[in-house]
Design a protein that fits this description.
Length: about 650
Amino acid sequence: MHKMITKITCRLGRCVSTVACRTTQVRRFLHGAYFRIQPSIQEALMDGRPVVALESTIITHGMAYPQNLSMAREVEKIVTTNGAVPATIGILRGQIHVGLTDEELQFLASSKNVVKVSRRDLPYVLSQGLSGGTTVSGTMIAAHKAGICVFVTGGIGGVHRGGENTLDVSADLTELGRTPVAVVSAGVKSILDIGRTLEYLETQGVCVAAFGESREFPAFFSRQSGFKAPYHVQDEEEAAKLIASALGLGLSSGVLIAVPCPQERAASGQVIEEVIQQALSEARSKGIRGKELTPFMLQKINVLTDGKSLESNLALIKNNARVGSCIAVALSKLQKATRKGNLPRQEDTTPPQPVVIGGINVDFIAKAQNSVILGGGQTNAGRVRRTFGGVGRNLADCLSRLGLNPLFLSAVGKDEHSESILHYCHHMVSQFKEKLCQAPLVCIDGNVPLSTIQYICQLAREHQLAVCYEPTDENKASKPFLSDSWKALTYISPNLQELRAINRTLGNSLPAELPSRLEDVIKTAMALARPLLAHLCCVVVTLGAHGVLLCGKSLGGSISLRPAAHKQPAAASLCATHYPAIHTSREEIVNVSGAGDSLMAGILAGMLANHDTDTCVRMGLLAASLSLRSYEPISPEISTATVSWEHVQGKTWPEAKVWKMD
């Protein structure tokens, strides 16, 4: 098994060095007098992770305080939740900041005398040490110089109505014609001349594509503009391929991905048009023009629509952030595959497989027929069963039955049992089609060699892999913790004894003895899990008949299983949630050897299906309950038909209790 994995290592080395070379150049540039890059964003760029640029004019000039601040925070959270790193760009005291701290966001959101900064304004604002919000144009320049390919905004500027006479054309359009950044927006603002804007973009050589089911070019508040986009991409993968093609060609122009406002928040085009005409008339009478026109118009439209336009504005910005983040993630994967010379074939639509690396065993279980064993040399009737076990095999088996088609790596000896075990596992046997570093999840157990565990942890660092470690037993639990390798893990699923052994290896304080009363068990588990959560996303403590204790960061009242959750701001509090087990009588329990593996497989299957945390855990509890009643370690009854979101929703569950760890 280890030899097979070592071959992959050699092929990945070139990819890692290429990324490092490219981002070193970025880093040198950004340490100049005009730029400051936030360390977390610099790290993401160096690692080749997806980063999404966000503008700041919407904060400084688009909305009033404090709504602008809450909107900015929420948009950044949406980007993070969808797997990308947010990089809000603004100017503070004469320096372009790529990525803003919360204090810097508050400063821009609450300041009264900040400048609206486009391309033409940059030299003056920087030379005078001023602060400001960057427009689409200003943000594109900073994003491109930082090496960020995807930028999300609300709506871009364009040709103003009557622009054929006034020549009032937004710098956003010319910037799109000369800066290779993909801009994700809700089309152009409906207060503009959309037809002439599309014509101008064509002249500038900008590739424009509508996103979603329709080719209709959206008009900011409204999903319809009466104009068709030149091109059309149906999802984030198609959008990523389009952007990758533009970047690969070395074109100096950008790409515009036009995303319609969500249907439930979209305003009627006719109503908005009538309001726009009224606002334009007032602007003309007051002599408002140039860069002051758009803020005036948006504010006036908000008043005339009783706030409905602002609701649409917020909805489309959040939707753009979600779509743009997904596009950035898809583009990052595509770029990594290209650098490895391993572009997926067009006809191959198989999603990346989770990978399980671990032991595969043949177990013989002897069970006496009578509960009392007779002594004196007498024969005791009984039954011997052969089953197939091993923690890694159990996890792969259960994930396979739940429809995830995992890739299972293990060592299989050539003996009398090998053919029978391969026949039994035929539903989960797969060829090695996907690269380990492309897996959405890697599971390893304590049976594999220490060198393999350390290798997987190193890959996890380099390629941001989500890795789950199943300790197997108390003696093997500490393998990753013999070095700093464990800090690259995402999840671990120990019982209380294994968790104590891990803390012993790390030199942490230990309880004199393990308690038996449930409340004391939970408090002890929380104390032992707490030091691990500085690096791990989640510690899943299996408590046998008492159920499971989930320890992690609380985001919005619930512990998140998303790998990005443990990188949230320190303000997120640590907590634990106890989920009682499904009641199973002593008579119903046939085999306990695979229940814990079924529990974890069910949780991970739910996580990979993007279910909420409660659903994930209860899927695990359902799978564990079925395996307890089965002679096989993993119940053959486990399937997508018996362990699913629908089954969780259709069942009455004991109340889960939340414990604060702070």
